[in-house]
Q: What sequence folds into this?
């Protein structure tokens, strides 16, 4: 086992890097959509409760595990978890903490590359004079590799490789490079967000039109911030809120543990984790909710937003809306919006490289450059198919299995390890050692009972999602002694491609496309399994190497 003297240069740099890890594309792309699809104000209250009962405890768990493993010379989850329990299984559960980062960065960097090229399009005025349908089609052509490429063949692939290369270059300078990017990127992100949020909050009814006479930005704001207490009894909203916590805090991935493993033994982690968590929440709730939905409602009306809210709005709708502000401010807004998304993306994707690099440094003595390049090669091998076969579902498979299911499984298992095997007495001592704040003692009980129960509910909810995500009807049916029909999007249904097979039955005219999706989805899953097995094999080999060195 190799040791490293690398550590964070300053507390501010660490907190900004941790906040940058958490503040990602989900804050600005996923959060507003989840809020709209789950009733606006009906979503916010369960979301905030989930942050207190699940988000903060998971931050405590991951910071504590990271610092504990780091003082023993371990900087990635296989051996961080192994240092907590010597049962061999935990090393291989720790594989999730490397696997998830590579699986996610593979497609996440592709989204980063969209934001990167869209900054350029905003500057050169590509969208000037385009209609709403044209701009929407522009994005479809780009990801479909069928146009929007300045006549350069396979431009999306080239931009993807360029952005991945930028990540690798920064990673090759270690924690210092990540810290510099965080110190520049996070303030710029907040500045760009503040400009757009101010514009969204001050639009009012100024842009109502004959086509959309009811357009009013304040309708979007009121929809998000008018509490609806009835949602507290809706399991669907709770599951959506809990799911968003994973996306927004980057928990269940292994990158937080890796960052925390470079914290000095008696350095505060309680205040650091809460500061990073609340910085993320402030950005998400104050800025994330004040840009896409109010601006779209200010031009198109709340009804249009409720019908059309989706991930693609950021790239297919926002550039059109910015054009309505005139040539100068539309360019400023485009640079702010896509620049904000780029900085949100790269501060998160940099964190995803550190567990692999920490592991290869610890176990094989690899330097920063070798670690970064090897990470880039593996990430590119995983990621290029998500670019080439985007329209066939490769991207979605990585996002679902690598970026959703894996996170919940790993978070549940590490919470059980921390609270029940490491034990809350030792765990609490680890959290509070060197703390600059007094951590409320009620979190002992929350971390031991409430957080694992919530995580288990999220996993069970994903496994057995009822048709139409109608949990109230499903629970009524179960109470009556009957079963219920699973939704095609439930985890169990997705394993057998029931969602795609349902599309095949409902739309036979698109059978060729759907059959290709089934084929490429299966291929994507095989690639993910091979990645997991490869990492587990490297962990096994490193363990044999450790044992031979101790003999």
A:
């Amino acid at each position: 086992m190799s040791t490293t003297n690398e550590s964070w240069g300053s507390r501010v740099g660490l907190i900004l890097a941790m906040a940058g890890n958490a503040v990602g594309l989900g804050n600005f792309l996923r959060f507003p959509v989840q809020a709209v699809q789950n009733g606006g104000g009906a979503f916010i209250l369960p979301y905030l409760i989930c942050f207190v009962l699940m988000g903060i405890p998971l931050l405590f768990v991951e910071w504590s595990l990271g610092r504990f493993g780091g003082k023993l010379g371990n900087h990635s989850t296989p051996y961080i978890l192994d240092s907590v329990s010597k049962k061999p299984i935990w090393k291989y559960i720790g594989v999730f903490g490397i696997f998830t980062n590579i699986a996610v960065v593979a497609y996440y960097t592709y989204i980063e590359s969209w934001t990167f090229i869209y900054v350029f399009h905003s500057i050169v005025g590509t969208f000037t004079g385009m209609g709403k349908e044209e701009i929407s089609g522009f994005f479809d052509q780009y990801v479909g590799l069928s146009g929007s490429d300045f006549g350069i063949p396979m431009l999306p692939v080239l931009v993807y490789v360029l952005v991945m290369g930028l990540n690798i270059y920064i990673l090759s300078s270690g924690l210092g490079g990540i810290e510099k990017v965080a110190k520049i990127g996070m303030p710029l992100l907040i500045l760009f967000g503040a400009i757009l949020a101010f514009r969204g909050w001050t639009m009012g009814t100024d842009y109502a039109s004959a086509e959309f006479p009811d357009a009013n930005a304040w309708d979007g704001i009121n929809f998000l911030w008018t509490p609806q207490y009835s949602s507290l009894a809706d399991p669907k909203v709770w599951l959506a809120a809990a799911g968003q916590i994973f996306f927004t805090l980057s928990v269940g991935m292994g990158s937080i543990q890796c960052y925390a493993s470079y914290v000095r033994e008696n350095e505060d982690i309680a205040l650091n984790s809460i500061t990073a968590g609340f910085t993320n929440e402030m950005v998400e709730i104050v800025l994330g909710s004040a840009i896409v939905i109010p601006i779209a409602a200010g031009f198109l009306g709340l009804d249009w937003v409720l019908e059309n809210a989706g991930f693609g709005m950021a790239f297919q709708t926002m550039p059109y809306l910015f054009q309505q502000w005139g040539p100068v401010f539309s360019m400023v807004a485009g640079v702010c919006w896509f620049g904000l998304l780029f900085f949100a993306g790269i501060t998160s994707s940099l964190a995803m490289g550190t567990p692999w690099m920490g592991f290869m440094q610890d176990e094989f003595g690899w330097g920063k450059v070798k670690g970064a390049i090897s990470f880039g090669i593996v990430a590119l091998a995983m990621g290029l198919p998500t670019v080439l076969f985007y329209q066939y579902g490769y991207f979605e498979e990585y996002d679902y299995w690598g970026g959703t299911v894996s996170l919940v499984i790993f978070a549940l298992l590490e919470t059980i390890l921390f609270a029940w095997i490491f034990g809350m007495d030792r765990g609490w001592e680890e959290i509070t050692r060197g703390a600059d704040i007094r951590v409320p003692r009620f979190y002992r009980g929350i971390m031991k009972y409430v957080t694992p129960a919530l995580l288990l509910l999220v996993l069970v909810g994903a496994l057995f999602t009822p048709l139409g995500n109608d949990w109230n009807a499903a629970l009524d049916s179960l109470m009556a002694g009957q079963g219920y029909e699973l939704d095609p999007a439930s985890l169990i249904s997705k394993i057998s491609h029931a969602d795609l097979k349902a599309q095949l039955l409902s739309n036979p005219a698109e059978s060729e496309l759907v059959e290709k999706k089934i084929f490429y989805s299966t291929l994507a899953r095989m690639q993910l399994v091979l990645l997991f097995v490869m990492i587990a094999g490297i962990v096994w080999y490193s363990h044999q190497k450790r044992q031979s060195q101790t003999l």
Q: What stands out?
A: The radius of gyration is 23 Å.
